[in-house]
Amino acid sequence: MFSLTIFNRTLICIVITLVFILHTLDRIELPLLNKIEHSVYDLRLKLTTINSVDPRIVIIDLDEKSLAAEGRWPWSRDKLSELVDILFNVYQIKVLGFDIVFAEPDTSSGLEILEQLEQKQLSNNSEYSQIIRDIKPSLRFDDLFANSLKNRAVVLAYYFNSAETNINPNSSLPVAAAKTSDHPYLKLIKEKGYGANLAQLQSSAITGGYFNNSKVDSDGSYRRIPLIAEFHGNIYESLALATYRRLLNQPPLDFTFKQGYGEFPRLESINIESLSIPVTEEGIALVPYRGKQGSFNYISATDVLTGQVELDELTDKIVLFGATAAGILDLRTTPVQNVYPGVEVHANLISGMLDNSFKSKPSFMLGAEVFEIFILALLVIVLYPKLSSITAAITFVLLIIFIVWSNLYLWQQIKLDNFLATPLILLFLLFSVQIYFGYFLETKKKKKLSKIFGQYIPAKLVADMSQSEHEFSLKAQLKEMTVLFSDVRGFTSISETMTPESLSALINEILTPITGVIHHHHGTIDKYIGDAIMAFWGAPIDDKHHASHAIASALAFFPILDQINHEFKQKKWPHIEMGIGISTGKMSVGNMGSEFRMAYTVMGDTVNVGARLEGLTKQYGLRILVSESTKQAAAEYSYLEVDRVRVKGKSEPLIIYEPLALTTELTDKQQQLIVDFERVLSLYRSQQWQQSKALLNTIKQHYPDKLLFTIYLDRINRYSSIPVEKDWDGVFTYETK
Questions:
Q1: Which residues, in sequence order, are bridge partners of residue 479?
Q2: From CA 142, how far away is CA 81, in angstroms rounded?
Q3: 52: burial class by Cβ within 10 Å (0-12, 13-18, 19+)?
Q4: What whole-number percentage of the chain has pLDDT above 90?
Q5: In this structure, what DSSP letter does residue 214 have?
Q6: Four-CA torsion 462, 464, 469, 474, nearest 10 degrees
Q7: Can you say whether the dihedral through the CA atoms of 601, 606, 609, 613 is positive or negative?
Q8: Running DSSP on this structure, what letter comes out for residue 541?
Q9: Using one digit for the tens of pLDDT, what is the confidence trace for 541-582?
Q10: In b/e form, how buried is each residue of 134-155, taking b as 16+ CB within 10 angstroms?
Q11: In this predicted model, what pLDDT tens digit does every residue of 684-704 receive, in sequence order?
């Protein structure tokens, strides 16, 4: 039996290792592992970004301020021509890259209409014809823009797409960076179609670069971007690469190839003069992000047009023109920020080219990663059975530290991107298998759990815990949970009329069935406080429906309470009513107390709120009150909003609710009550006293015994005669607990 156990755990470890190796070699895909690897990559990148502003690159921002001052986008191209002239003539910038496509002619000048008038209605008016000829050059906005681009370091943007027929005949691509026939080993992404600038504009600028990313990761994040792509046998470059080459006066592209695992050499880097950019076989580079949005200076486009920018802010700068205004904002998901301007992605690439700060993943890293997986598996399978549990745990921790340290060293010092999540998860899985077979015994776990938690939760839950792989303990932790307080109303008066023996019997007959209801709905009894019960949901077993189970318990109390009162009536015992307060939120749970006595309990502000709500049930004459967080967590129930209150010990107001029933079981009368009382509260809080009073009186006819409506009528009458303060916010403050 022992040898069979060793065989089983060794076989499972080997199978897990083979799966991870096949995933690394792209023979199979584990989407969850990819997702985790991406998350770890993002975390590592965030931890190591330099988080400083690169002063060499400036983004001319088409922002809300510019649209408000210059008019909505698209602007007429005479304005863009003026912008280009100002940037080059006044500010003497080095290079200008547009992250916007100018695919359609600009007809905003109205020249076509003027020419039609000349040809038709005013064809005999020689004076009008002369005026048209004189002003025509100034109204050909595309000509003006094209002229401003000539002989200047300007890069226009375009995009590739997968639709072969989606090519605008009036547009054209820039001059290709190279021909694929000159580099037969290139295996680049082959694009099918494009959307580009007007041929007139592109021919004036000459240079251009694409801004799309055909290799976005599966989660939509821009971690890597193809710097070059193939289209119809030509090599085209991205906007960032084209801008960098234009900065250097268009030096030729060169490529470095190394023999890979296949028959042909693989592309390793793109070379531009002294710069060598590490890329994959398809020409894809990791984006060297500097940090979150704002790693480059933004200048409003209208400030440039109106001359409000100091010379040193733009002189000798690399300038990118992009948009952050709502409606035209080019947003991307990136490792450093979920919502990130696309223009700043290009800026990061250019900055990386200037600093030569690209991370690489050369072809040999694949073999290194497979070897790492193999060595880890060998260490665990061979060494673990020979180690004590403590030594094995120390070895596990040391291996994790070594993997993380070596990975960060390669990332920071060598600029190599090596996987991190994969070996960590593999190590965890292999150790888990070893631990499962070699250490934890089910019988010990059952005894331990029964000893620790048997006094707090029902036996069934203890049995469920013993079947779970999760480790339970009494150690304090912060968790999202729900707490319930219930109390017998008027218990002091009741106790004064009964003998101690009868009182004890009465309490037992109340608390026993109520405790059963709590256990039935997966609750944990915290303590009995005389006639009161404190219970919570969400620990020691995680319960994602903790709020719903608490409300279900509370609503189930009262049919049982009716049965109890029926029996008490026969015994001539007092009639019993209960108030219940429920609150949901973060609270500390665990073994707490002193060295003399400990208890598994909950503490925190959320717990205090639950106690306050139970106390408020007396004030409003209601059986149950819950907090707004409980209402949100148990959305399948329908609620009557009761009030906005400020309780003792809390400065922030609370919105409190009465749960009525599951929404699917709500009666028409209850539904109408919710709608009508919401209207009453709206009128009340807007100080429309007479209207709220009239509607409230109508409601009260159907609910004559409901104290809540009487309370509001009293408030309205008082506020009608004594005006409220100017800053009255509709919140009622309770000074006592």
A1: 587
A2: 9
A3: exposed
A4: 56
A5: T
A6: -30
A7: negative
A8: S
A9: 888 999 999 999 999 999 999 999 989 889 888 888 999 999
A10: eeeeebbbbbbbbebbeebbbb
A11: 999 999 999 999 999 999 999
